[in-house]
Amino acid sequence: MSQEISSKGLIRKLGFFPVVAIIIADMVGTGIFTTSGLLMENLRNPVVMISLWAVGGFIALSGAVCYAELSTAMPHSGGEYLYLSKLFHPIVGFLSGWISFIVGFSAPVAATSIAVGEYMIEAFPAIQEFGNIGPFSGAAVFQKFLAIIVILFFAAIHLRGVELGTKVHNGFTLLKIMLIVGIIILGFSFGKGDMNNFSVLQDTDTNSVGLKAIGLSVMWIMFAYSGWNAASYIGSEVKNPAKTLPRSLLAGTLIVIIIYVLLNILFVYAIPPKDMEGLISVGGRAATQLFSSSFGQIFSVLVAIGLLSTISSLIILGPRIYYAMAKEGHFFPFAAKIHSKTGVPHWSIGIQVIVAIIIVLTGTFDDILTYMGFSLGIFPILAVFGIFKLRKQKLKSYKVPLYPAIPVFFILINIMILILGFAERPIASSIAILTVLVGIPLYYIFKNIKTIK
User: Fold this and answer.
1) Looking at residue 100, what DSSP letter applies?
2) Dmax over Cα atoms in the chain, in whole Å?
3) This prediction's pTM
4) How far is CA 267 from the centre of its chain?
């Protein structure tokens, strides 16, 4: 059977299920298992918290609908980089790719890999003794060591080719979804929870939970939902993109919305709001409260296993953006090379792995949710705004329903989230803006290198 080759040189091998699996795995990561306790501390109201998870899902779904039109009009790899470069200016696309490189993929690979170690230590505290190397000891050393091993393991898999990579990836994703669905069913059917937890309001001044707190909370939630646009990054490798891309974007996002809302209802059912406040390992605590400490230990291991699929999806998606940027002369030229046998952008995979390992070795992130949430919230707004320019070209592609209401809603609500998030956490938000600005001189450096050649 002959294989369809895209105009970008990549082979169209991925059908509906693999693309949906990539979207789900990219979305369901560390955010859903770590942010609910922080949200409860910020909001102090379980009903408001769960409602905001639903609102965040609706925002993500509206974005997915918009990206369905963008991805079918431009069915190639690159995501926002491609859309913004074509619809606005190459420098705008470059800045989105720069943010994706540092904030969107490399940093989450590092953070998620470290989270695997944290959950394993929670399940088996004694294993951190393996981190005792000379003068170095403790959980942090073990976490970093395990994180690097995990990153290198998945890099090796995906360097072997997209087909092997997606088979392994699909297996981890299916396992993660089965685990989450299993804990939801078992938790509500047999768990020792309390529905009265939903009616508990913390003793606090209601005026203290204002718009800024809600805006910051939705920013954290949107970080947990990030990945709803994942299919747009691999458009050059998707079979029949006109049908597969819209269906996979919508299906993947809807599945994750249902999972997130049900999981958070289960968390509140299991843990009194006061005990949830500020809790990072909310999934493990919920399993312990619902059943037993032994069950909580098992669930922590399962969460660690589930996080592996998130790392896998990030290593699939990120390098395709750097590949697309390099093809246009806006990134290191070697990143545009495709392996002659495996057909994957092996140098792009390599550079992402190197940066992720450096991040692992250099420490943790302060205010990481706000920094990443603010950085990643900027360019989807611009991409969706590009739909208005795209409509003028009158291309035959999937069309956003209820146009222009859905694009306008997505743009305005995300601008409001950024403003409120900045007002609540100005330092982390300012660092995010600075990260974007650093990309401007880099664009001209790469442009000059291309001109010299």
Assistant:
1) I
2) 68
3) 0.77
4) 21
